[in-house]
Structure formats: structure tokens, C-alpha cells
Amino acid sequence: MNFSRIITLRENKIIPLIKEISIIFSFALLTGIGAKIKIEIGPVPITMQTVPVLLSGALLGSKKGAFSQILYLLLGLFGISWFSRGGGLLYIFSPTFGYIIGFVLCAYFVGFLFEKGFYRNVWKIFFTIITGNLLIYIPGLLWLIKFVGIENILKSGFYPFIFGDFLKSILVASTLMIKKNVLKK
Question: 3-184 belongs to which CATH class?
Fold first, then answer.
């Protein structure tokens, strides 16, 4: 039996797997770094997290993008202090926890639409990015109600973020258009 052939066959399967895991973990890490780039404004800070969340879906696809955000969520709950205000299992009781659930939905949705060809023109890209951003808000706002009440939900968890999310959406869409144009050449 030729052992070098067996090792080569294993390496051919292991190395791509390690590469995939590394890329998925990298997007979880970038989301954690984005959480630390923040402006405290109330119960929910303005962060840069949506940029890597949106890019994870667009660049990794629906399943791997969502998995990167699930990994971010789980590792944060297991104690890595990379959420915007810390980490650990008790973070479930934080006003921002619903938005983290939204990250998973967003990454999956953006990846799904990109897999269906929504990366082909700027308007479809922008539509996908804006809609993905809105999907973060659904569980985020529903969760935040417990902390600020329904009467303050939009004032605390939506209105302060519109302009910044619009700018981040332009950044993500531009990045994806540049990537698309570079790969064409």
C-alpha cells in the first residue's frame, strides 16, 4: 500500500475543509471586530457589524454566511467578549441580543438572493443589501420592546440607525460591485 498516496488523498480533502472553516470563522471574527467599532447612543449602540454580516452572505453564500453568524453568536454566548457590550450566556438578556439573531437571517437572505443572481446589477445588489439590513431589525426590534417599551421602540432601535445603515449599505454595495468588476477582467 502506498502511504504517500493515502496522505495526499486526505490532504486533498482536509485542506479545502480547513480553508472553508477559516473563512467562515474569519467572518465571525470580523463581525466581532465590527461590534467593537461603536458609538454608544442608548440601549443599542451604532456599530460596524452590519458590514461583515452583509458581506458574509454575499461572499460566502446563504448557508456558510448564516453559519458564520451562528458561530459568532455561539462563541459570544460561550464567553468570547466580542458582542458590542461583552459576551457570555447572560447576554441573552441584553437589549441588543435580538439584532444578533437578525444577523443570521440577514446573512442567509443576502446569500440566498446572491445565489439566485441578484449580484448582476447595482440595483439588485442595493435592494438585497437594504432588505438584508431590514431583516436585522425584525428580531432586533421585537426583542428590544422588552427593554424600552413599544412606545419607544422606533426612537431607540430604528430611527438613529437609518442614515448609518444607508451609508454602510452603499459601502457594501460598492465593495461588491468593485469585486464583481475586478473578477470580470
Answer: mainly alpha
